[in-house]
Write a structure and sequence with these properties.
Blueprint: H1 2-16, E1 18-19, H2 21-28, H3 32-44, E2 49-52, E3 58-61, H4 74-89, H5 95-106, H6 125-139, E4 142-149, E5 155-168, E6 171-178, E7 183-188, E8 192-201, H7 209-214, E9 220-227, H8 232-238, E10 244-246, E11 252-259, H9 262-269, E12 275-279, H10 281-296
Antiparallel strand pairs: 1-3, 2-3, 4-5, 4-8, 5-6, 6-7, 9-11, 9-12, 10-11
Length: about 300
């Protein structure tokens, strides 16, 4: 398309400073007459293009010309570049070359303001590669095969049609249709091992968000915890500000709604002796029972 060629032409002029009509003709695989018509179009749009003859002559832009003078405000430049940098961090296909060209056109070398690493602290390259595989499988609608370890450490082989990567409850999950269970399931990414993207494609689409969370193991409950002062850093990291009450003795009373399952029990116990379940009473009894069983191992 002509508009694509015009944008690319300005980019080439910024990058190479001076070029000849023949070089542009060869680059774009069009006639020199077409190149001159394009240059007239750019000049009419306010792009200051100059030509000179003789040795060292050619086509160039006015020195120190910046794209913003005729097309894009500085505020818009920052918004565009920042948005593209965010997309690049998420590995969205095709963003890198666009970002590079606009950076040259706007003459901006701003530092990259965002970086997204889906893997957890201390993980190796294998964990990072896992997220790349999941992303490609979702985008290209390819089934994945992996070994999955339950909360009890039981191993099972799964083949699923991955539909969405979800961050929930301080952990990453993959949501999809499990071919083994013949139903929709959520799988915690850290429990997936030996992940492979297989050649089989699928047509299944993502269901309503409300249906996604109905498939998660455990019925959501609202719990109230009392957490001691030494855990303040976790309180402010892991709970909504509006759900935190600071008590006179420096402790915190927090409220949070989560599915009741083994992960929830482990989460509460991760606070050690610094957390106490206040409500609901059945959850208090469950945690007490787990602690009593643990204590029996040391008698």
């Amino acid at each position: 398309m002509k508009i694509d060629r015009l944008l690319e032409m300005v980019y080439v002029l910024f990058e190479k400073k001076t070029v000849t009509a023949k070089e542009l003709s060869n680059y774009f695989e069009v006639s020199q007459r077409t190149i001159y018509r394009d240059l007239e179009t750019l000049s009419a749009a306010g792009i200051p293009i100059y030509t000179s003859k003789g040795k060292g002559g050619g086509i160039r832009l006015l020195d120190n010309y910046v794209m913003k003078k005729s097309m894009v405000s500085e505020k818009d430049q920052l918004e565009i570049i920042s948005s593209l940098q965010g997309m690049e961090s998420l590995n969205v296909p095709g963003v890198e070359p666009v970002l590079k060209k606009l950076g040259v056109l706007f003459q901006r070398n701003d530092s990259k303001w965002i970086d997204v690493d889906f893997s957890h602290w201390g993980s190796g390259e294998d964990e990072k590669e896992k997220f790349k595989k999941l992303k490609n499988a979702i985008i290209h609608k390819k089934r994945i095969q992996f070994d999955y370890y339950s909360t009890n450490g039981e191993k099972s082989e799964r083949v699923i049609e991955p539909l969405q990567l979800i961050f929930k409850g301080q952990a990453w999950y993959i949501y999809g249709f499990c071919m083994v269970r013949d139903d929709y399931r959520m799988f915690r990414v850290t429990r997936m091992k030996n992940l492979n993207v297989i050649a089989e494609s699928f047509e299944r689409c993502l269901v309503e968000e409300s249906q996604i969370y109905q498939t998660e193991t455990g019925i959501p409950i609202t719990m109230v915890l009392k957490i001691d002062p030494p855990m303040a850093f976790r309180v402010y990291d892991e709970f909504e500000h509006g759900k935190i009450v600071k008590n006179e003795d420096g402790s915190f009373t927090v409220t949070k709604t989560l599915p009741e399952n083994d992960w929830l029990y482990g989460y509460i116990l991760s606070f050690g002796a610094s957390a106490q379940v206040l409500q609901p009473m059945h959850l208090q009894s469950t945690i007490r029972g787990i602690l009593e069983k643990s204590l029996m191992k040391y008698i």
